[in-house]
Amino acid sequence: MTKKFLFRGRTGLNALILFLSSILFLSGCAGVRGLGSHTNQTVFVYEGQAHRVCVRGDFNGWSGDADCLKREGNTWTLSLQIPAGRYAYVLSLNDNQCIPDPQALLFEDDGFGNTNSVLIVP
Fold it and tell me: How far is CA 18 from CA 11, 14, 25, 122, in A?
């Protein structure tokens, strides 16, 4: 006789709750890139001298041309709709220098000796 005891009893109930909690966590609460369909408006601001300022990151395939800031005096701004998630990014100055965003709150090593800014979109 074969016994079947999938999620049976109190221990089984705890396992089921843990399993379902893990699925919910991984489906949107963990900052995993690209899981949510919700987007938020994100504003990038850079203050300084430059001829061109663009943002490169996980959210645009690290493209140097896709999302460039607009200049007003020495202030550069760009507003983007970005899906919920966690993204690494940098600012590209004059197409030849990448720097972390001076106004970012979070940073991480990129694995190549440079620093990326980190953006978390709720």
Answer: 11, 6, 10, 24
Residue with tokens 């090593």: 109
Instruction: Report the 3 state secondary structure along 2-22.
Output: CCCCCCCHHHHHHHHHHHHHH
In order, the DSSP letters of 84-113 are SEEEEEEEEETTTEEE--TT-SEEEE-SSS
| pTM given for the model | 0.69
> Which tens digits make up the pLDDT trace of 26-56?
333 333 334 445 789 999 999 999 999 999 9
Domain 39-121, what fold?
Immunoglobulin-like (2.60.40)
